[in-house]
Fold this sequence. Notes:
heterodimer, A: alpha/beta, 6-stranded mixed beta sheet, 4-stranded antiparallel beta sheet, about 30% helix, elongated, B: about 130 residues, mainly alpha, Arc Repressor Mutant, subunit A, 2 domains, two-stranded antiparallel sheet, 5 helices
Amino acid sequence: MYDPLPSTAPPLIEISRVTRQFGSRTALNDVSLAVPRGGVFGLIGGNGAGKTTLIKHMMGLLKAQQGSVRVFGLDPIQHPVETLGRIGYLSEERDLPDWMQVRELIRYTQAFYPNWDEAFAEELRQTFDLDAKAVVRNLSRGQRARAGLLVALAHRPDLLVLDEPSSGLDPVVRRDILGAIIRTIAEEGRTVLFSSHLLDEVERVADWVAIIHEGRILLTASMDEIKDRHRRLTLRFTESVDRPPALVGALSFEGAGTEWTYICSGESRQLRLAAEALGATVVDDASLTLDEIFVSRIQG
Amino acid sequence: MLIHISTKDGVPIYLQVVNQIKYLVAAGRLTAGEELPPIRGLAEQLLVNPNTIARAYRELEAAGIVEKRRTAGTYVSDQGSPLARRERLKILTDRIDALVAEAMQMNVDLNDVVKLVQQRHAALQITETKE
């Protein structure tokens, strides 16, 4: 098992002040992000938030117009072999060569990776129930995702990058993908970065989370920290009010009359003290789902 | 070992694992000396991060519910600790809260609820004797 504490080792991926324009549209706006070695890093955001653009910079598929990108300490554009050779990548489009049979896809991909593990590839093919002779073009959406996952995993990469791996897939295939993420990090020292808008999956497997919205990183923290530092407090006031008093750390509120519910950023104890200072009674103090935290953050 | 993880109500996943294992121990469905599944195996079964399971096992160990043995496994500790009793009472309290709330909603008097509990207790004892 790897060490969950942040180490002094340099981050595996380091994005510093990257800005990217597509025409007049700013896809990434002064983005800085450090992905530590070991564990699962979840990149969350809505459609068009900049997740895929950011991942493409990590993969050396896009060049930073401003700022710098380092993966394993190297610029992925100047050192594609040293970086890409250690990364397993499943793109959002799952762009696989359509005309190949599954066994040809495996042989073809194998040629790029000296560390290819043939036995592991075969084991994955059987686990995923992929027909060796099936043509990629004819695979179902789920089988196509599994084939993409197989070729991303079989060279046992130090870093596995999955862009929206579960998007549009049925629960059975989603289980395979989550299982692959878990097995990958359970093997010592490996790192997974995945983007998703399915926040219940992120909540299950991520050690670290970054929220990206409209090309900016709004929040980066460990999952434990994010869960600890967001609460839903329900307060009862002695008198009915049309609008509740401002509470330190409140991101949003709803309610009526004497009872109001706040979504807050802060630690439970301090939030309670702040609420009591307003003359309110705390009638409920609950944790939030990652989904609720995300929504309150991007609306704030 | 049956554990169910939900991401619907915001309870941190490690805490769900802790609470459910405490429940299983208190309810006698995990007994003293029984081995818990290995961290990685349980993580893959529940589809959660292995660190989360490791944290849950650490918390259970700190609470004296389980203990690590030299053979690297994690085992349920001997029962009879005051905590086990406290946990048992806590489980009952949750059930009683639900019962009382329901009785109030159905306009059933508390004395009648208590009487009913005693009747059911008597009825169960008769069944047990028969067996």
